[in-house]
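Same chain as my last thread, 214 residues:
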Amino acid sequence: MKHRTAEIIREFGPFPGIDDIAGVSFGRERVWFASGDRLNALDPESGEITGSIATAADAGTAFDGTHLFQTADDAINKIDPTTGEVLATIPTPGDGGHSGLAWAEGFLWVGQHRGRKIHQVDPESGKVHRTIESDRFVTGVTWVDGELWHGTWQDGESDIRHINATTGDVLERLQMPSGSGVSGLESDGGDRFFCGSGDAGKLLVVRRPGSDSE
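reply #2:
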């Protein structure tokens, strides 16, 4: 297993009126992040919040290229990013405590925080196709180039992990610096991971290993 220190290359925030960042996603050249009562769209170049959607948004966020998916309590809402309308709702899997959400290959991937699990879920029915277990609290999920990564944050330590999507074995760890945690995780499809920082209220940008700019 590879192990290295995460390289934080940029920080955004804290933002006025936002005390906590939960889910994070990326789409249409915007970073979307959940902050309790709304979804915020941030321009990753300027760092400015360019829009928001008033909706329950207390955990994971995902984008399928057309629609946003947002975890709220025990449901996952499918949202039109233009109008903010909730188009459909499916139940969250397991017994609650969800913390991460990602879209890949026609499925939602749902992190379950203290359950230490990642579920592959049918976005139409909510049916769980399979479950991957972790040995730490799961705090974010993302896919990039066929690789499954997830965040952890437990006992004051946090990391970003590349895992085997079949066995759950950890292939690589990016240890977050002391005092920094991951609450929500998303790749931009290139050399950046975007991470929420919990109640620090910041959005962190971490260099993805193996990128051309490394």
